[in-house]
Amino acid sequence: MAAPATVGAGQGKGQGKEYPGGLTLYVFLTCAVAATGGLIVGYDIGISGGVTSMDTFLQQFFPSVYRKEQTAARGGGSQYCKFDSQLLTAFTSSLYLAALVASSFVASVARSLGRKWSMFGGGVSFLAGAALNAAAQNVAMLIVGRILLGVGVAFAGLSIPIYLSEMAPHRLRGTLNIGLQLMITVGIFSANLVNYGAAKIRGGWGWRLSLGLAAVPAAIIAAGSLFLPDTPNSLITRGYHEEARRVLRRIRGTDDVDAEYADLVAAGAARRPWLGILERRHRPQLAVAVLVPFFQQFTGINVIMFYAPVLFRTIGLGGDAALMSAVITGLVNIAATLVSVAAVDRLGRRKLFFQGGCQMLACQAIVGTLIGVAFGGDDGATVPRAYAAAVVALICAYVAGFAWSWGPLAILIPSEVFPLGIRPAGQAVTLAVNMLCTFAVAQAFLPMLCRMRFGLFYFFAGWVLAMTLFVAAFLPETKGVPIERMGAVWRTHWFWQRFVAADEDGNGDV
Fold first, then answer.
1. Residue 209 in contact with residue 64, Cβ under 8 Å?
2. What are the tens digits of pLDDT across the range 176-203?
3. Which of 92, 239, 498, 503 lies in the 20 to 30 Å Cα band around 203?
């Protein structure tokens, strides 16, 4: 029986049960291979904004946007509105709408076939989408390719966080799970480098290279998943008990796995994932599954990462300078994620969430003020070089705050709080909310930039304030708690305990 510690306001602490074994080379390698699935997500985030800022791409597929951009460059149009096109934003956001729809059935695939084959399906779908985009002759082909990419993102986004959380020893679950976010940042940085080089290719076909190279990370996760074992949790859920015990012994590096195995069997007893997730005792986990990804998208980070080159061009940087600035923010993203890898299982989730939120809040408010002072109401104005440099520096600070807090932790937390029997359903809810909000923000950003102007940064700053207060009051600490004993966290939380009652045998997984 887990022995939860006393919980203060808004915080749950306690190490729970200790199991024999630790981090083995085998589990490190399997988690590293699985985490490479983050490359497909990151590459797409980074590639979209860069491609949509390439003149040759705009001329071929979005000529009206190209004409507005050229008019604005001559001082004859609005700096805020030159990229405002619903068709252009549909190119980016169609992926997330497809992922939203796919999330309704991906959970069933992950539960019935296992996490491994779900990852494989994601890689194959993303590979097909990359090929179609690279060969696109019209907007319809681009959007169909994006839909296939979205299905791939849905499979990877649901299965990989669960896989990492289930394979990792509980004392290092945060560190290994954040490997996924690290690969996402590497994917973003790689895409920014590719865009910077592809924009210089003569002949106007550089955008095809940018879009087509998405096949590389897709092939990596598709091939790599074939060599991965499935998790003991998934094997138990599907009735492969002896194989589950064998895999558990191998990943823990010890034969003494009886206690952990017994808890996994008990945790996997639920057989009604979609009905179980609606039960009162799972209300806290469901709230986290909805609110954490919702708040993550309303930090404004995808506005920065999708449209970094577009945004930088809007504030007066030239095409090459805009792409290089996006490369710089990508590098900052990687470095800051490494900070999270080192700190998450030492400092805990709450401290990183809170510090990152405060940092992002300050950066958003200052960026909005700088752009407001520089542009004011003059749509034809150009930001002075000193202002542009300050904006880039502040955006880098903002990206750093996100990358060691809401970036990795918004993936980690939902993957570790649900009981085994409803874990795929819970992750599907998280994925669906994430994709819905990403779609909404991506689709609305350029029109909002046109109409709200610099006030858009204050809009996102307000959401950052709200989510930081949510963390302070309602998000418990899950550092060091075994994933199958997570119920103790909710039973001892000042607010959530009213929804959760210990089950008859005192099992921590409720």
1. no
2. 888 998 998 899 888 888 888 888 888 8
3. 92
